[in-house]
Structure formats: structure tokens, C-alpha cells
Amino acid sequence: MTVTPIAAASAPVVDPGYRAVTLRSRDGRYGMRIGIRHTIVVAALVLATLAVAVVSLATGDFFIPVGDVVATLLGQGDDRTRLVVFEWRMPRVLLAVALGAGLGVGGAIFQSLTRNPLGSPDIIGFDAGAYTGALLVITTIGTGYAAVAGGAMAGGLATAFAVYLIAYRRGFQGFRLIIVGIAVAAMLMSLNTWIILNADLYVAIAAGAWGSGSLNTVGWAQATPAVAVLLVLWAVAATLAGRMRLLEMGDDAAIALGVRGGRVRLALVGTGVAFTATATAAAGPIAFVSLAAPQLARRLTRSASVTLAASAAMGALLLAASDFAAQRLFAPTQLPVGIVTVAVGGLYLIWLLIREGRRR
After folding, report:
1. Going by C-beta distance under 8 Å and a sequence separation of 6 or more, which residues neighbour residue 286?
2. How many CB atoms lie within 10 A of CB 197?
3. Which of 63, 102, 318, 350 could disulfide-link 275, Cβ–Cβ 3.0 to 4.6 Å?
4. Is 2 helix (H, G, I), strand (E, B) or coil?
5. How many Å is the maximal CA-CA distance in the chain?
């Protein structure tokens, strides 16, 4: 594999409108164009996320110097430090990073499909549907992790199917999907409130606490299956990324380039819902990460549309930083991370509205 500046690549060369390098195999049969600014932004976000993760591993009731944390991660710590880092704190930090990346990718998929920054799973009802499925399981079967996870996954997929079916009219339109999704979300939130009000007091308290979105009690039992599912979903999303980009050009252009729009769109919807449902199953509904991460990443990379890698990196940083704030802002009391993301998301929406207002 060689790295060739775009200007020196073999003809024909299409100017992408940004500085890029082209990676080509030695025989020239395979190639990949990488934006320089996009790569730098993703690398910076990853480094920032790692810094937040190390600080999160170091702080708490038992403080560990950052140097000792790094040494432990490299396999040089003592038994007590390894216990605190790997057994007590690592599952929470790892899950925050993984779920944040998953929510970022899920949001990017739906914002790409709808071609609208409001086309996020938490706006168009998929989070509410996953919450409904989990609530039905909690109030009828119990609070077992596998059952709640299955209920959240089923609720999210059923809601996505219903929204897609209602919004479909001789084709797919992103704006119609958003309007239908907002209406379905409103109905589901009312249903969720009714379910909690009619549940047993202790069950209602547990359901309400879970519904705030929290990583306070997670361990390896929750982190391991969630990260395993997310790894599979990231691989699926990576295979669909190219066709997702072609769909943004319009159905006619995508079909002309050999993309089966209906099948690819359904695959993208299923993958995006699976990201949301996995996060909801592991930690409860966590709002605004899916909404904000793709757009913040797009502005940093100055790309014309959302990108999966930058959205994942931004989502991981947002949720890891939010969870660290949830742990330390009012220590020793720990807030649900969902409360912090709602506060940050509210500030993002205010900034977005002010910015749009100044434009007009």
C-alpha cells in the first residue's frame, strides 16, 4: 500500500473539494481517498476521549495517579490498582465510550437517510419505543438484564417498523418520516407515563430510575454483551457506509450507480435502530447524543454531510465526558448520565436556534 497525494494520483482525478490523500494498492486495482482534515479531527477526538477515559479511571473514592493508571493499563500495576481499574471502573468507562460511539453512528445514519439534522432516533421516537418495550418487560416479567434488553430491542424495532410503514407513501421522504416519528414519540411517551403510574410502587421507582439513563451500576455483565453487539453493528455500518453516501445523491442517481435503494434503506434503518436499542437496553434512554454528535462532527470536519467515523468519535467523547461529569459534579452523589446529556443537549439546541435565527 502506498500513499499518493491526490494531485499526483493517476488520471482521471476528481477534485473532492477538500484536501485529501489517496491510498492505492501496488497494482492500482484498489484505492481509497481520505480527507486530511477529517482524519485529523477524528484523531483529535479519539485522543480527547482517551484522556477523559484515563481521568475517569483515576478519580473516585480511591484516587489513583494518572501515571499509575497508564502503567496498570500497560500491565505493570499492582493487584490493588488492577482491581480498582479493571474490575470497578473499566466496565463503566468502556461502556460509556462504546455506547456513545454507537449513538453517534445511529444518529448519523438517520440524519443521512432523512437529510435533516433533526432526523435523530431520539427525536423520531425510536428511543421512546425501546423504552416502552423495556417498561412492558419490567412491569410484567421483572428487571433481569437479558429480558429488559430483549424488550428494548423489540420495542425499538417495532416502533421503527410502524413509523416507516406509516410514513411510506409511494417512496421514502425524510421530512415525512420525522413528522410521523415525532407524533409516534409523543404517543409512546404518554403510554410510558401511563404504564409507570399504574405499576406497583417499587416497580415504578425502578422503572423511573432506569428511564433516566444511567451507567451508575453497570459492570462487566452489562458491558461485555453490549460491546460485543456494538462491534457487530459497527462492522455492518461500515459495509453500508458507501451505499449510504450514494443514497444522499438521490434515488435516481443511486439506482443508476447500482444501489438498490429500498433494500439498502431498510438495512440502514435496522442497523440504526439496533444501535439505539442496544444503548437503551444497556443503560436506559440517553437523549441528545444521537442528535448532537453527527452535526458537531460535521462542523468540525467541514464536510458536506455527516460521516460515520467522525460521528462515532464525537459521540464517544460526549458520553464519556458527560458520564465523568455525572460522577464528579455532585460527588459523592452520582447523577444519571441521561440528565447530563439532556442539559448539554438543551444548550446545543439553544445555540442551534440562535444561530439559525441570526441567519434569517
Report:
1. 99, 103, 213, 279, 280, 319, 337, 338, 341
2. 8
3. 102
4. strand
5. 70
Q: How far is CA 122 from the centre of its chain?
A: 11
Mean pLDDT: which of 104-113, 140-149, 263-272 is highest?
104-113
> How far is CA 209 from each of CA 151, 284, 320, 326, rounded to the nearest angstrom?
17, 9, 20, 15
Using the Cα atoms of residue 220, residue 309, residue 129 and residue 323 in order, give the sign of their dihedral.
positive
Angle at 57 between CA 54 and CA 58, to 5 degrees: 90
Nearest to 244 by CA among 277, 270, 279, 274: 270
User: How many residues can be counted in the chain?
Assistant: 360
Residue 5 has pLDDT above 50, yes or no: no
Bond from prior residue into 121 cis (ω within 30 degrees of 0): no
DSSP, collapsed to helix, strand or coil, labels residue 24 as strand
Q: Which pTM value belongs to this model?
A: 0.85
Beta strands in the chain (DSSP E): 2-5, 20-24, 31-35
Cell reading at 167: 410514513
Distant-in-sequence, close-in-space partners of 115: CB < 8 Å, separation ≥ 6: 174, 248
Per the omega criterion (within 30 degrees of 0), is the bond before 65 cis? no
pLDDT tens readout for residues 235-282 = 999 998 888 888 877 777 777 777 776 788 888 888 888 888 888 888
Cβ-based neighbour number of residue 209 at 10 Å: 14
* 236 Cβ contact list (under 8 Å, min separation 6): 267, 271
Cβ-count burial of 87 within 10 angstroms (0-12 exposed, 13-18 middle, 19+ buried)? Answer: exposed
**CA separation (Å) from 298 to 112, 141, 305, 323?**
12, 42, 6, 23
Tens-digit pLDDT profile for residues 158-210: 888 888 888 877 666 777 888 888 888 889 989 988 988 888 888 888 777 77
The CA-based angle 319-322-326, given to 5 degrees, is 135
C-alpha cell at 329: 459534579
**pLDDT, average across residues 288-310:** 88
Kind of pairing between the strands at 31-35 and 20-24: antiparallel
